[in-house]
Amino acid sequence: MKNMLFKLIVVGRVKDVHYQAKINEFIQRLNAFGKIEIQELRDDTVEKESAAILKALENERGWVVILDERGENITSVELANKFSSCDRKIVLVIGGAFGFTDEVRKRADYLLALSKFTVTHEMARLLLAEQLYRACTIIAGKKYHH
What we know:
By secondary structure, the protein is of the alpha/beta class. The protein is built from 5 helices and 5 strands, in the order E-H-E-H-E-H-E-H-E-H. The protein has helices at 17-30, 46-57, 76-84, 102-107, 121-140, and strands spanning 4-11, 34-41, 63-72, 90-94, 110-112. It has a 5-stranded parallel β-sheet with strand order 2-1-4-3-5, sandwiched between helices. Strand 1, helix 1 (17-30) and strand 2 form a beta-alpha-beta unit. Helix 1 packs parallel to helix 5 and helix 3 packs across helix 5 (121-140).
């Protein structure tokens, strides 16, 4: 398995220490498969958050995945397949409570829905961290997935 390179651009901070502990656990586990960078942006209006996201993506050459309720719902194996066929850094973006402007969606190479449910920012970060780890174990043929 090649070394994966992930960058997470996220709006807001995780305030609950229990969520943060689990997110950190999966981030630590991911280190066995590659590198992960996290860039936190300040909570604000949708317009200001979207402008900050676009600025963060300005010089980004990676595959940009926007996590959005309008995105595609796929399985963990399908996500792993998308990652394994990607030959560049994978940049994943989680917006604020009210989502993104259409400008941000247009910047995406791929729109991904974590769930049809609406979940909190903290849950979204935890779910994404776990799914990144799961995808890496699937690609590497490890037993975590089943």
